[in-house]
Amino acid sequence: MTRRPAAIDDESLIAALRLAAGRDPVPGHVPATARAAFGLRLPGAATALPVAAPAPRGVRDGGEERLLRFTTGGLTVDLEVTSMDGLVDLAGQVSPCPEEGTRVEVRTPHLTEARELSATGQFAVTGLPPGWFSVVCHRPGQVPVVTSWTRIRP
Description:
By secondary structure, the protein is mainly beta. It has helices at 10-21, 29-39, and strands spanning 46-51, 65-72, 75-84, 87-95, 103-107, 112-116, 122-128, 131-138, 145-147, 150-152. It is built from two helices and ten strands, in the order ααββββββββββ. Strands 1, 2, 3, 4, 5, 6, 7, 8, 9 and 10 form a ten-stranded mixed beta sheet that branches.
């Protein structure tokens, strides 16, 4: 007679069998989170993907800021990410310098901050919660450019 190891109780075995059979119910928060994430997409937008950002010359690495670069179709979005007191600050620049009326949105799953770009293509957003973010660049008469989602940890 073969016996099961004492460490596996009946409830654990049944749960493991349900998982293996694909019959384990989806937790209630998962569909709601999936719908919220789906609502954040921008159909028709061009996606700017991350590329290596060169380290600035003459600056020591203090470990407190991070440089990110995203590019697509001749447009580059550079971001400097700084964390302080559990919140995140973003300073960015869009290049080449976009035309007047260009604006950016810094999006998190819970809020969106919109900014008009300066004449040199710069913008800043402070006091963001740590977590996932994406930047959308809206240029007059062109499709929006959206960066891939990136996670910021404090």
